[in-house]
Amino acid sequence: MAKINEDLLKERKKCSFNTAELTHLLDGGKDKTLERRSREHFFLDDPELRSKIPSEYLSHKEKYEEAIRKSCILFRKVQELQEAGKGGMDNYREILGGQLGSAILKDGNPITLHYVMFIPTIMGQGNFEQQAEWIQKAWTCSIIGTYAQTELGHGTFIRGLETTATYDPKTEEFVLNSPTLTSYKWWPGGLGHSANFAIVVAQLYTQGKCHGIHPFIVQLRDEETHMPMKGIKIGEIGCKLGMNSTNNGYLGFENYRIPRTNLLMKNNKVLPDGTYVKSPSSKLTYGTMIFVRVVLVQDCASYMKKAVTIATRYSAVRHQSEMKPNCPEPQIIDYVTQQYKLFPYIAMSFAFQYSASWLWDIYNNVTGELESGQLENLPELHALACCLKAVGTADCAAGVETLRLACGGHGYMTASNLPSTYGLATAMCTYEGENTVLLLQTARYLIKIWQNKKNIQKLPTVRYLDNALFNNRSYEKSVSWILSALQQVAAAKIDLANKHINDRVRQGKAYEDAWNETSIELVAAADAHCRTFLLDIFNLTVNNFQLISPELKAVLTDLLELYAVHTAIRMTGDLLRFTNTIGKDVEALQLWLEELLAKIRPNAIGIVDSFDIRDEVLGSALGAYDGNVYERLFAEAQKSPLNQEPVNKSFGLYLKPFLKNNL
Ligand SMILES: CCCCCCCCCCCCCCCCCC(=O)SCCNC(=O)CCNC(=O)[C@H](O)C(C)(C)COP(=O)(O)OP(=O)(O)OC[C@H]1O[C@@H](n2cnc3c(N)ncnc32)[C@H](O)[C@@H]1OP(=O)(O)O
Ligand SMILES: Cc1cc2nc3c(=O)[nH]c(=O)nc-3n(C[C@H](O)[C@H](O)[C@H](O)COP(=O)(O)OP(=O)(O)OC[C@H]3O[C@@H](n4cnc5c(N)ncnc54)[C@H](O)[C@@H]3O)c2cc1C
């Protein structure tokens, strides 16, 4: 093993708690840690899954080809694990999520959508016969699917999609058409050249009537030759800010026929004669989107942990400037401004992990209820998934960017792996529901609840709104005070937005116009509501830990307090405006923040070490466990194709004649 950097050695000695204990706690137990490590070994130590050349130096086409090569090996290996009964769904979660997956395929996986949306849609929207027909083929990868919903003209407003599926009772088929350029499907991952099937979301017409959007299983390419089917126009959409190997595609239809039974009919049906049978809720068709929003919150925690590990280790190794005259240059982690860039994101990754796991449980409960026809908890789940996805991805992207800046110039190198992590994180802000739009969905729910609080005590995520407006507690240095103040802020913002909508309606405006004019406040209200949830869950989780050592409990309490204080300080204006917080209290919060940064400082490296992220997963010259930053940066530079020859041919072609002309 390479020699460990001296600074990191010292940092590790300072740590006040047992890092293995925290690793096990985060994984859900020692067994889970061992299982994860063995899975990591299984994938990361396979030479077939390594790239000879860093992906940044490949052409667009080569990137895609390499991604397909690796994806096939990756999923074959997952199948091997499944067949051996090892790991279960965790294998898929880790490969598709923010850690293992992004280590092996830095720029995204072109087959992700098959597992994350194609199969879940068939499972959630297909009836018994359809599941029997398609699930086995999909699980064994006899077919590869994607999820084609978004069009060139519409991503958010899915009721406005233009692709049509018109039922023809004579042949018992649907005829698919893309009547306009804007009706072309645009964006689906893997659609360009990877998938041969897709769930296509289209407007269903039968007996001369449109019944709105529905999901259909559609074959796109010949299963043998992979040529596009007749009537299908398909291709890739081109280069993007990041995720350049996910093969996002476009798709158009020209009188393309599919059997009636390819309409997913668990919820809505079309009978052979063309009769339309409606489901109890039109929103059941949106189920896959909820599922993905829920799993994305876990990804936020993963990306944040990765970025914060890189930046924190680098900050311990990097020395810069003079803090005091004639003293050695300090580690940059000793600058308090640097601590302020790092430690809140360490704390945030815990907050997101804990909320993601609550959301996952709520999701499973509610989907279980949906199976038995109970729909009453769906709106609360939808509202919570929307705001957690929006706040989580926004904080994650902003956090990764802050952490990149915290690494100075070297953070700008792709070898730091922070730029591509940012590419992955910022994409999450847009896909699976653009963040502002999702916050407005949560606001819609909150306003409804505010207007009718009758059953509010039965709704765990919003019941605090019943009396939060009157919390008015005087400042105390406690998480419980911050939580109560944030709840008051959220309630006050919802109340005010509601009042402004009503005022505008009273002035004669249509409700929709009043809503739009109030929408900045509505978004802020949903954001505040979400932040109270995140803090509440973090607080509950830490307080519920019974069997952990006092040393670890102390560290987790520091992180919880830092998360709370950091959130409160970011919302200073709101606290002053909506609670009885005064200037002196803000000063006290600031001092508390500085005290917490100092308390966390000796444990910072220990905490990020506890995330137990292998070097291959970090993929960063700045963040490796040994801290040999400069050696690794130098070694990475040697991989540049330009460094493979002392003189590049452009010298003879352009530079030399140019230099001569200037003589
Ligand atoms: C196998 C293991 C796998 C593990 C994986 C782990 C790793 C994960 C890795 C992740 C990688 C992911 C890659 C994914 C790539 C991105 C894919 C996409 O973007 S795909 C494309 C994603 N595209 C998008 O996300 C599009 C975003 N747009 C939309 O979702 C919708 O059009 C809308 C919600 C904005 C409006 O819809 P509209 O119809 O106009 O609705 P209105 O506003 O008029 O409200 C009417 C009523 O409906 C209600 N309601 C609404 N939604 C839901 C719901 N879901 N439910 C329930 N209810 C819902 C609403 O509350 C309201 O109720 P009420 O007040 O009347 O009672
Ligand atoms: C990397 C990536 C992968 C993707 N993968 C897939 C995929 O696999 N399958 C698929 O079907 N789609 C996919 N998408 C598409 C994605 O789901 C959409 O881009 C997303 O839903 C946003 O829709 P839009 O692009 O139409 O944005 P728009 O809705 O046009 O948003 C543009 C702006 O308008 C604002 N806006 C829109 N509506 C409202 C409103 N009602 N109120 C206030 N403001 C509004 C938004 O806030 C935003 O600021 C992917 C996108 C990306 C970036």
Please describe what this structure looks like:
The model has no long low-confidence stretch (mean pLDDT 96). Helix 15 packs antiparallel against helix 17, helix 15 packs across helix 19 and helix 18 runs antiparallel to helix 20. The strands form three sheets. Strands 1, 2, 3, 5, 6 and 9 form a six-stranded mixed beta sheet that branches. This protein has a three-stranded antiparallel beta sheet with strand order 4-8-7, with no helix packed on it. It has a two-stranded antiparallel sheet with strand order 10-11. The longest helix has 36 residues. It has a domain of 135 residues: Butyryl-CoA Dehydrogenase, subunit A, domain 2 (Beta Barrel), CATH 2.40.110.10. It is an alpha+beta fold and 663 residues long. Helix content is 55%, strand content 8%. It is globular, with a radius of gyration of 27 Å. It binds stearoyl-coenzyme A (ST9) and flavin-adenine dinucleotide. The site of flavin-adenine dinucleotide (FAD) has 22 residues, from strand 1, helix 13 and helix 14.
